[in-house]
Structures are given as C-alpha cells and as structure tokens.
Amino acid sequence: EQIIERVEEAMKLLHGNGFVFGDLRAPNILRVDGGAMLIDFDWAGKVGEAKYPLDINFEVNWAEGTPDRP
C-alpha cells in the first residue's frame, strides 16, 4: 500500500510540473527503503510533446487517431 501511495505522489509531482510518464507498469517500479522509485523514462516527457524511444518497433500497428505517431 505504501508503494502505491509513493507512486501516486511521484505521478502527481510529474504532472504538476508538466510532465507525463508514459510507461507506468510494475516492471518500471522499484521498491526502495520502504518506498518506490520509477525507472525507464524512455516514454516520459513534457505534456503535448510526442517522444518515441530510439528502439521503437515500427511494425506495431498504431491505433487509429493516435496523435504524432512515427
């Protein structure tokens, strides 16, 4: 439960400063000292600025209407 609260705090901090974390899932959350740390910021960036990792798979079918897709 404390980990969830820490992740929520981190997300609020990011969003409050105009950033998004685009890959929030269990493998990108580390447990540290009774809390949590986000890792893998390849999909993170400023709100409204599309950013794709260099190793993105261009063979993946993107959903219709996806903005700024590569």
Automatic annotation (TrEMBL):
SUPFAM superfamilies: Protein kinase-like (PK-like). This is Protein kinase domain-containing protein. GO terms for molecular function: ATP binding; protein kinase activity. PROSITE patterns: PROTEIN_KINASE_DOM. The lineage of its organism: Eukaryota, Fungi, Dikarya, Basidiomycota, Agaricomycotina. Gene3D superfamilies: Transferase(Phosphotransferase) domain 1. It comes from the Eukaryota. Residues 1-70 form the Protein kinase domain.
